[in-house]
Amino acid sequence: MPYIRAAPAPLAQPGHASAPVLTPAPASPAPTAAPLPTAAPTAAPLPATAPATAPLPAADPPAPARLPNGDPMLATRVRPPRPPAAAFLPRDRLLGRLDAAALRPVTLVTGPAGAGKTLLVADWLARGRLPGPAAWLTLEPSDNQPGTFWAYVREALQTGVAALPAEVGAPARAEHVEPSLLLRLAAWINARPRPLVLVLDECEHLDNLRLAEQLHDLVRHTAGRLRLVLVGRSEPLLPLHRYRAAGELAEIRAGELALNRAETAAVLERHGLRVGPAAVGAVHHALSGWTAGVRLLALAAQEADDPEAYLGRIDAGPTALSDFLLAEVLRTQPAPTQDLLLRCSILGRVHPDLADALTGRRDGRRILDRLHQDNAFTDALPDGWYRLHPMFAGILRLHLRAAAPERVDELRVRAAHWLAGHGQYRAALDHAAEAGAWALAARLLVDEFALGELLAGRDATRLCALFTRMPPTEHSPAAELVRAAVHLTRHEAASALKILEHVEPLLPAERTPLQLAAVLVRTGAARLLGSAPLADRAARRAEELEHRVPAELLERHPELLTLMAADLGSTLLWHGRLDEAGRALERAARAPLSPTTARLRHDALCRLALIDHLRGRPGRAERRVREADEEADRSSLPPDSRTEVRDLVLAATALERDEPAEARAALHRMTGGRAPGHDPVVTLGSAVVRARLHLAEGRPDSALRLLDETRRHGLADRTSDWSRERLAVTACAAHLAAGRPGAAVAALDDVPTLAPDSLVVAARARLAAGRDEQGTLAGLRALRDDPAVGSATRTRALLLLAQAERDSPGSARLLTEALAAAEPERLCRPFRESAPWVRRRLRGLPHLARAHGWLPADLRPPARDQDPERCPDTRPVLPAAGAPVEPLTGREREILLCAARLLSTQEIADELYVSPNTVKTHLKSVNRKLRTANRRDAVRTATRLRLLDAP
């Protein structure tokens, strides 16, 4: 829009007539808010807090749906606007076009601002001339993020069509949506009895190519069951050329939206202007059928002494038209209305009470309602709010900045106070930041107990970018705590703690939000540094403060306590305090599920899986990972946002089953080929699992070099007794693999060996070196009999005891016991570590070898030593009918039924609306439960055991 040369009357104070252009309004005896002059008088100061306003209606509405970043959805955006009853002109010729267009998958309605696009489609919906139920969504620039967009589409469908089944799911992250969610949505649409209409208003905001591709895929997968109506000023990024070529696109363009001469006359008449053909022709020629321009011009002409002559003065030039609309149309409004419109132009949506807060008066509701009734500048929204016409609001903002630039920031601060006081802290924060009121912006974030969103929420990237702009000269307590949190997002724990040491003594003891924000920063720093003292201190302080936080704020921001528990659990895990770590991580994993806690819960579940692995329970660890994956799928967490610990656990369990290729693939997924990040638990775990992979591949010296590199560089400034134990025990195993028992024992000098798996490795080294054999065997027997010891650790202890018994009957019994302990989880690695002895011993026990066909072929006797008909090398041993089999889950049974139909992995994924990786994980679990090697054998076994019969 060209800059406005002719300014309207300055914003006069209430009770005064409009003043001449560029002339300050006369002073009022007792104004409640200073006027906005076009000159530059001294601005009246704003109060430090929001002015008192009339309360909003007291009725408690239903809890609004939430966006992926935790914000409530705006109900007004999923409801079509109501055409004004008096001045609105129905367009029958265009309604007929829409009736015909709705028979095609895509309809495009495009034209300039004010062309009448939105009201035309809203009127079409209101008349019920549709092929099926309809949903409406008004888009905004923030919807360019896939997760936000599809969350709003989902809410629009629920509002206008029907409630979606829970299994369809909802996006959990603003920047991403899982493809499986869109497949489930398409399946739901295809199952509807009638086609449905989805209107996307202001679709010009869709300029995200990936999002356009997803919307195109939905249109393609629904095969005409979805009728998409796109309304906007320009074409979106959808492949419209394909739709045109296929005859699937109907279009209504600006030329058709433009009023013809008869419609122009009808609009003027609906505004009470019965003028002659010459005046109608002049208006029609000057405005080229621009609907909004005709309506605005009609409003101005209503006040003229001679409307016909007034309409004949309009200049057809675009700049002159802009000048005319501002100077002539706005001038027809009373001074209080002009003042309100200019002040409220900084807002996209305005509530009457918010307008009063900006003007300092009490006439906002009356003025906004009158403007809506007159169809001038504003649209009434269903929830009591109003929206200024975007084109006119833009003109007003330009004029406001030109006439009174020093007042713009003051108005934004007023708006921030009011919005914060009415539960809209995000909008308040944005206005405060835009005004450069950083102390207020930081206080809003901290007082809302929302600092966790900057560290772990879906809005973290935007909030970090926002507060990165905060100048270093801002030193309020809240600003310093926010600055420390920003340092944590960059993994700068030392910088965060330096700020905390300076600001923490200055925090008032009664200010719970500030105190809890300091605790949150401390737990985050403790996790990065691996500092148990820091974590313990923070945990004690958090327990003291938690009961002082209002319950409704904790419900609104569940990520706060979840993040603290997750950070505490990870830090305690780093120090080997597995029981305490497990309790903290269980709290995080069972926190209320929300878009801001989905990733924290996923990470906590995977760390609990890591604890299971460390306790020698790989099967249980893998089940935890599956649980975490299923929850992540339901929450639409994208793969790149899932924790590295997931693949670390999968790599470790793959090694226990002697599957080095799968372990290598999991490690590659974990880091994408990069070095581990800043989490000490991940850094250590990655090094240990990689070293064990080297051992599995017969490269013990490479394992030792990797461990030494990790000790000297990866963990140089973040050591703990537990990390030293993990590295030393793995080095001991490497020396044993290299045939150096003396070096293996020496590797454990001055290092505590407290964990059960560490005790087993140490015992193996001492037995190999011939040291303290009786005491070592006693320790192994204690591990064998300890019910808390996991299957992997017990299997290794039993194998060592069996080897110590040589070839006695006791040895066979212990070997049988070890095989029984390992069989449910197919733990091959312990037997591989003792391969020469296991191979020799099983030659003398062929019946035992035959009973355990899951062992690697090279550990069992050659086929010629066995019955060819039952050779496990050539035919898998199947469970006997009626033998105990671990029950299949419902999802595993569904996947196995699909496999019985000879569907591929991708076809199964498409049919069940899950990812191919999820299908593979479930098939692997099925093979383990049924003791089979592939899906064909699994189907055969499940069929024989009648596991696939209909319940």
TrEMBL record:
<feature type="region of interest" description="Disordered">
    <location>
        <begin position="859"/>
        <end position="884"/>
    </location>
</feature>
<feature type="region of interest" description="Disordered">
    <location>
        <begin position="1"/>
        <end position="86"/>
    </location>
</feature>
<dbReference type="InterPro" id="IPR059106">
    <property type="entry name" value="WHD_MalT"/>
</dbReference>
<dbReference type="Pfam" id="PF00196">
    <property type="entry name" value="GerE"/>
</dbReference>
<protein>
    <submittedName>
        <fullName>LuxR C-terminal-related transcriptional regulator</fullName>
    </submittedName>
</protein>
<dbReference type="InterPro" id="IPR036388">
    <property type="entry name" value="WH-like_DNA-bd_sf"/>
</dbReference>
<keyword id="KW-0805">Transcription regulation</keyword>
<dbReference type="InterPro" id="IPR016032">
    <property type="entry name" value="Sig_transdc_resp-reg_C-effctor"/>
</dbReference>
<dbReference type="InterPro" id="IPR011990">
    <property type="entry name" value="TPR-like_helical_dom_sf"/>
</dbReference>
<feature type="compositionally biased region" description="Low complexity">
    <location>
        <begin position="35"/>
        <end position="57"/>
    </location>
</feature>
<dbReference type="InterPro" id="IPR000792">
    <property type="entry name" value="Tscrpt_reg_LuxR_C"/>
</dbReference>
<feature type="compositionally biased region" description="Basic and acidic residues">
    <location>
        <begin position="861"/>
        <end position="873"/>
    </location>
</feature>
<keyword id="KW-0804">Transcription</keyword>
<feature type="domain" description="HTH luxR-type">
    <location>
        <begin position="881"/>
        <end position="946"/>
    </location>
</feature>
<keyword id="KW-0238">DNA-binding</keyword>
<feature type="region of interest" description="Disordered">
    <location>
        <begin position="619"/>
        <end position="643"/>
    </location>
</feature>
<dbReference type="Pfam" id="PF13401">
    <property type="entry name" value="AAA_22"/>
</dbReference>
<dbReference type="InterPro" id="IPR049945">
    <property type="entry name" value="AAA_22"/>
</dbReference>
<dbReference type="Pfam" id="PF25873">
    <property type="entry name" value="WHD_MalT"/>
</dbReference>
<dbReference type="InterPro" id="IPR027417">
    <property type="entry name" value="P-loop_NTPase"/>
</dbReference>
